[in-house]
Input
Amino acid sequence: MRKSLLFSIAGAGMLALIAPVLAQNAYPEKGRTITTIVPSTAGGGTDTAARLMAPLLEKELGVPVEIVNKPGASMQIGLSFVAAAKPDGYTLIWSVLPTSASIYLDPERNSSTFKRESLIPIGLYYGAPFAIVVKGDSQYKTLKDLVDAAKANPGKLKVGTSGFMATGHFAALAFESGADVKTATVNFQGGGPQLNALLGGHIDATTQSMGELMSHKKAGTIRVLAMMSEQRDEHMPDVPTTAEAGFPKIEPIGSDIGLSAPAGTPPEIIQRLTEALKKGTEDQALKARMAELGNTLEYKDSRQYVEFWNQVDKRYKPLVEAARKQAK
Amino acid sequence: MESFHLLIGGFIQVLQPVYLTYALVGCILGTIIGILPGIGPAAGTAILIPITSGIDPTGSIIMLAAIYYGAMYGGTITSVLINTPGEAASAVTCLDGYVMAKNGRAGPALAVAAVGSFIGGGVATLGLIFLALPLTRLALTFGPPEIFSLLLIGLSLVTALASTSIVRALIAAFAGLLFAQVGIDPIMGMERFTFGRLELLDGFQIVPVVMGLFGIGEILLSIERPIQNMFAATVGSLFLSKDDIKRATGPVLRGSVIGFFLGLVPGLGSMIPAFLSYATEKRLSKHPEEFGKGAIEGVAGPETANNSYANAAFIPLFTLGIPASPTMAILMGALMMNGLVPGPTLFVEHSQFVWAIIASFLVGNLILLVLNLPLIPLWVALLRVPYGILVVIVLIFCVLGAYSLNNQVFDIWVMLGAGIVGYLMKKVDIPSAPLILTLILGPLLESTLRQSLEISGGEFSVFFNRPISMTLIVLATLILLSSTLQIFRQVKTDSEV
Output
């Protein structure tokens, strides 16, 4: 009797010692929900891509993966929320570069609640390359036409972006400095008004991601002058890169979206999530959908994503400063 | 004629029991979302996207669209019954709808909103069927200068929202403009009046402010009164009288047109059409003094306009892939998730799908009408729930609703703060509607002004040498002049001003 009691106490003690280890191995615990934060509104590009990935992660991890939108303040609200969350692998964020980086790269912004070291990158999911676009019947047939027009009338060519310090704004600045021209940058509030102004002929060109534009390109209502990336887009083989169009100094610009966790999340959990994300990106149906949306899948593991993030910091620092200078 | 054939094809598809069921479920869910304060159409459709993801694309979009226009109608119910708009577009309905309910006319108020919504939705859908492409071209002529001038008209109509005196309306309007300054400025990205609060970087959210000013304000005010008197004590006739129908016809027709055209302009949002319709009706009315005291025109016009707007907003989405409002952006996401990319090729590549959706709008609006007219007695009966119980339920829903907007506790505080402000404004008899209007218009005015000037290189002439913009400015000036005359007339008769 007594012996068996002793044994069971010893057993319980052993269990208590092993339990934390088991718990770690058991991530994610059955029945617990992993909450992934989308720091922008429902229905946007990041949200759509996240919602396509969530069921695949669910399949890999065996627990529900929910999406919660916490939009606002150029993603700072969502990022700050996750930065302050418990680092247990149950609260993650779909992190968007360069938008996330511009928060701490910008000296004018109060970024005490979100810093570079607030997050651990889990893995990179996809990229949305940016392009220089004009209206379908525009007089500018090539990127050179556009640059020539900007050179002939400095500060007159109207280039629309989806917002101040949005990725498109950095793209417009990269175009200016890379082609050595001066344009009139018009920052809209969101992609809708920006596209309306382009199609209505109120502005001359836009710098933007291709997601919403694939249908317009097919219909001929817009013309894509160049992709701001290192290689051509496989879905638009007829469109040259900026370098091929004769302007190698225009820096490649794009939005890159990955999954990140709050700093302090145990490496085993990160590893588990990285693997799940990798499996997800290999799904055939997902590949097809993402292609339709104009996105390029570009899986990178945690370490590669960190390196990628470092490069983004380096490359965008001068662009953030240029945006500030332009505002003044 | 070709579109007519395609539409028939669409009807044949939609009238299948499966799709009818989706439309019906969507209408019911939408109405519920509309009724719950705070959870508006945008949040509601976003929350329900996962539910629809198991259905085939046509079915899921039919259901999401039904949720959307269901919510646009459902918001009316709480505006009328408890002075708390279920979603932002129904804020204007509080002004006369709630007073009508207090006078025992909740039934006719809800009935006119249901019928008006049906007609508005129908007109907009017919416009989508027969005029989508020419209208798309018209919408594209609206660049930042035109939108700015259009907003000026909205601003000039502020005085129409005055109840007792123009000065009081202007006080509220200026307060609204001041509150609109809070947040990151749209052009330079500098923080204004944020006091280091992250949540204020995007400025005040309209919905919690509206819920606070109207709903919470009313609850606070009711504390002073004997307990039974907050909500309508008497329940009179439930349906529209001949006189009601006569008075509502004009506003419904004008509301359809106003909502329809504003639905084509991206970025305006659903409240501006409702406000513009209200102001228009008050200006055109032979008895403007009845507005704010339970004029049925004040419910009929805005409610029609917001539903007409809701349906018309599909035009730029389908033809250009431009989401004109946050809800449209969510629906666009849903379309894209289903492999249907909105834009100029949508009608060509997925014509069967598009026409089925369009047919579903007509069917859905009819379902909504058939669903809601018989429910009116039930809603009105809610007013018989003891006040002590009802007020607690209202408060709970307001708090949940405010939180669910952005999953943020801060919005609850904004709502409660706005409630206190609303209470104080009522005490000193300053109307809250002008404050809400300028709070919405302020940021839009600022960004379109700055964008226009960026386009023109700083030349203000951009507003005058574009014909549409010029016309709108002339119109705004005329409205302003006529209300100035009105002020002078008032000064003669009313010593208070």
User: Anything to note?
Assistant: Chain B has a mean pLDDT of 86. DSSP finds 20 helices and two strands in chain B.
